[in-house]
Every structure is written in C-alpha cells, then in structure tokens.
C-alpha cells in the first residue's frame, strides 16, 4: 500500500473513516447450519443471495475495502461460484478457503473426515488449492476445534491443516472454542510438525477474557484475531486492541466483524448484517494511527 493513500484516508476523520486498500479478514456471505450430510446449493436460491449480498459488498467498497475473506467452510455453505460472481459484480476481491470445520458439535464434519487420516485430509486441501473451487483458488485453510482439551478429531483436523500449510504456504484460520488453552494446544501441534506459528490465526480470540493468552500467543509469532466486532461488543474489542498496543503486540493483531450473512433455511435469508460498522462505528473509537496497521499491513502479512 502507498503510505500517502492511507494518510489521505485517515485525514477524512471519524465522519468518513475510509481506509484505502483495507481488507476484512473474517466475514460471511452465506451460511447453512443444516449439517454436512444435507448442506447443498439446492437448499437456496443463488440468485436471491446474489441480489441481497451485492449491495452490501458495494457499500463496503465505498469505505476503501478492496478484499473480503469469505470464511464459510466447506459443508457449512461454502459457495465459491457465488463468491466469484459477486467478486466480479461488486468490484471487490473475495477470497474463499479449503479445510474442514470441527466446531458446532461436529455438524459440518462429513463422514469421510472422521475416517481418513490427517495426511489424507491434507491431500484433499492441497488438491483444492491446486485445482481451484468453482472458479476461485482457496487462499487460506479454515478449520475449527470444538473445545479444550482437544479431542482426537480436533487434533487430526489441526494436523491436516498444518500439513497442507507446509505444502501450499497457506495460512490456517482456526475457529477456536476453548479460549487461550485451545489456541496454545494447536500451536503445540504445529510446532510438532515444524509448521511456523506465523501460519496460525487464532479466530475468535476476543472470546478469551484473559489478556495474558492474547499476548502469549502473539509472542509466538501467531496471529490474534479479534473478530465479531459489532455495536454491542465495540468497547471490549477496543480494550483488546488497546491492550495489545500497550504490550507492543499490535503487529500480530487482526480485526474483523464475522458479519453477513444469508441464513439458509430462514425466509429471505433472515437478517443480513452489513460489513461497514467496523469503519463507521469502531474505527472512531481507536486512534487513526492504528487503522492502516490493522486493516492493511497486518492482513497482507498474515495472508501473504
């Protein structure tokens, strides 16, 4: 990014908090919680989703955002073809993912993932990276653990993600139930496989209320993601950001909203929360000097 462009965006002030070249690293367009065995594009009207999502993305673009990471994993409603269409129509880059999501009491874990080895699952992820999905190439690995202590299936999914990361260079975004202890346990698995901590993103780190874990994970070189930013959570997220800045660890922090999305199974897709509160409501709560670090520099490093 050109530093001059960012300074011009920052000078607009809290009333128009545009951040040129910014990236939202954890959002959703569509999610289906029906379960791995039933999830299918036949359960929704892609044209309806397109009509609803497109203006939300176009609005986001007006705030300077150039890329959105669509974090819906396979078997939970991932639709790369839809994302490819929206990317072209809205003029904003959309990244999709590969991997298996092990949270939500395993509802999005297909039977083959329970039976196959970590190496076999890693081969599946690498194949999607090589061959693409619905016109898009996955740019990160999305996985999840269901809690702490990690169960054998949790460990296998993390091992598969680490193996695939070593072969592809893709970062691992791990939805982490179980807070700091679960994040540290995953980092131990990565270390055992010689996968760099810098490839690990602790998703939903804001759910951990003890800041000592935020700092300790950041010190390993891993990424601490405070997503879920909304009007009701803004003060806690501000505290998380300021605390990390005070410890000299803001260089390892990512922020996003976990917003959207079209809820498959609900009439009209339910309530679709847009993607702009982070700009209009949250950024004015923190110094403008943080904006470029959190929304431009750190995302580009974490997902390089």
Describe what this molecule looks like in 3D.
This protein is α/β, with parallel strands linked by helices. The protein has a single domain (3-302), classed as TIM Barrel, CATH 3.20.20.140. Helices cover 42% and strands 14% of the residues. It contains 11 helices and 11 strands. The chain has helices at 3-11, 46-61, 80-90, 111-115, 118-131, 152-168, 179-192, 211-219, 234-246, 277-282, 288-302; strands at 22-27, 30-31, 65-70, 93-95, 97-98, 140-145, 172-176, 200-203, 223-226, 253-255, 262-263. The strands form 3 sheets. It has a 6-stranded parallel sheet. It has a 3-stranded parallel sheet with strand order 1-3-4. Strands 2-11 form a two-stranded parallel ribbon. Helix 7 links the parallel strand 7 (172-176) and strand 8. Helix 2 packs across helix 3 (80-90) and helix 5 (118-131) crosses helix 6. The longest helix is centred in the middle third of the chain and has 17 residues, at 152-168. The protein is globular, with a radius of gyration of 18 Å. The two termini are 14 Å apart. Residues 1-14 have low confidence and may be disordered.
